[in-house]
Input
Amino acid sequence: NTINYQATLEDPKVFTRPFKIAFALERNAEPDYQQMEYACVEGERDLQHYTEEEGAKKKT
Output
């Protein structure tokens, strides 16, 4: 239920030394949870409709 993501970025033209990142992605275990697909499209301005918090604000 967890993906541990680790990466090292090495680009001497951009960074003075290797840049490391790491984080965990955890599955939402709620029974009614549905993962929404989000496609990155140039000029997309509709992100607020993809978040629960913004959707709840619009309904009230």
